[in-house]
Amino acid sequence: MSLRDYTRETLRGLAGVLVIVENIKEDAEADGLSAAQLQANVEEQLEGAGIYAMPHERWRTATGRPWLYVSINTMKVVTSYFFSIDVQLKQEVSLRRQPAIMTSSATWEMGSIGFTAAEELPVRISEFVTAYVAEFITDYRVANSDA
């Protein structure tokens, strides 16, 4: 089984996910990057694919408390940005050697680093996040195709 097959299996049986987009740095926000817009886009993309983007109230009682975490880190250099993007599915897991010990861990992940002009930052970040969420959707569908 490949690593992708293994991580894909961690998506089996998910009823949906809570979407959390980490806060964006002030300079990136000033250049048009919006955590709220990214969150809305991710939720819309998931819902459009038939994956429930659950509200926080529903997430609290969901089995495994799965959440799709989008982290964008930026560093502005004059009129450009270095950036890193990480999209992770996190959920409650237990230690095999001590099953009573529960923690939250990333069980599926995609990410990258890059460089772009400041005026292109919102579009470039959105393109990457959209592509990674599309990969998540593909893996979710494969894992749940017989469910």
Can you walk me through this structure?
This protein is of the alpha+beta class and 147 residues long. The protein contains five helices and four strands; from the N terminus they run H-E-H-H-H-E-E-E-H. The chain has one domain: Double Stranded RNA Binding Domain, CATH 3.30.160. Strands 1-2-3-4 form a four-stranded mixed beta sheet. It is elongated and about 50 Å long. The model has no long low-confidence stretch (mean pLDDT 94).
CATH topology: Double Stranded RNA Binding Domain
Give Rg in angstroms: 16 Å
Strand content: 25-35%
User: What's the rounded overall pLDDT mean?
Assistant: 94
CATH class: Alpha Beta
Order of helices and strands: HEHHHEEEH
Count of domains:
1
Structural class: alpha+beta
Task: Provide key terms for this protein.
147 residues, alpha+beta, Double Stranded RNA Binding Domain, 4 strands
List the helices and strands and how they pair.
Elements: H1 3-9, E1 18-21, H2 26-30, H3 35-48, H4 56-59, E2 67-77, E3 80-94, E4 102-117, H5 121-143
Parallel strand pairs: 1-2
Antiparallel strand pairs: 2-3, 3-4
Helix pairs in contact: 3-5
Q: Would you summarize the structure shown here?
A:
The chain is built from 5 helices and 4 strands. The protein has helices at 3-9, 26-30, 35-48, 56-59, 121-143; strands at 18-21, 67-77, 80-94, 102-117.
